[in-house]
């Protein structure tokens, strides 16, 4: 099992990034959340099998069609993660 926090920068707000990330995370069987940050980035926390978290990370570099991702910064996450995947 793996739990990671991703900070995604670029054109990632207003392009359905959070909803698309949720769809991908649910498809991969991950728990966590995606939310916009005040500085224009999107934060994604994902918890589940390491391979699935890695696959989500690869997807985050692409995002939905209207997004333009400049950077995906990954760090380990040790906070509590509720079951399911929320969009905030």
Note down, in words, how this protein is organized:
The chain is of the alpha+beta class. Helices cover 28% and strands 40% of the residues. It contains two helices and five strands. It has helices at residues 17-28, 50-62, and strands spanning 2-11, 31-36, 42-48, 68-76, 85-87. A five-stranded mixed β-sheet has the order 4-1-3-2-5, covered by helices on one side. A hairpin with a 5-residue loop joins strand 2 (31-36) and strand 3 (42-48). The mean pLDDT is 97. This is Acylphosphatase.
Enumerate how many helices there are, as a single number. 2
Reported by name, the CATH topology is Alpha-Beta Plaits
Q: Which geometry do the CA atoms define?
A: globular
Q: What is the helix content?
A: 25-40%
Q: Give the integer mean of the pLDDT values.
A: 97
The share of residues in extended strands comes to 35-45%
Number of strands: 5
Query: Based on helices, strands and strand pairing, what is the structural class?
Result: alpha+beta
CATH architecture: 2-Layer Sandwich
Number of domains: 1
Largest sheet: 5 strands, mixed
Overall radius of gyration: 11 Å
Segments where pLDDT lies below 50 for 5+ residues? none
Distance between the termini: 24 Å
Q: What is the class in the CATH system? A: Alpha Beta
Catalytic activity: an acyl phosphate + H2O = a carboxylate + phosphate + H(+)
Organism: Dyella mobilis
Protein name: Acylphosphatase
Keywords: Hydrolase
């Amino acid at each position: 099992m793996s739990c990671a926090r991703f900070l995604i920068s670029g054109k990632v707000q207003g392009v359905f990034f959070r909803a698309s990330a949720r769809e991908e995370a649910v498809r991969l069987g991950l728990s966590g959340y995606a939310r916009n940050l005040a500085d224009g980035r999107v934060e994604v926390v994902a918890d589940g099998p390491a391979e699935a978290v890695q696959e989500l990370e690869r997807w985050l570099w692409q995002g939905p069609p209207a997004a333009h991702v400049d950077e995906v910064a990954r760090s380990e996450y040790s906070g509590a993660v509720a079951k399911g995947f929320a969009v905030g």
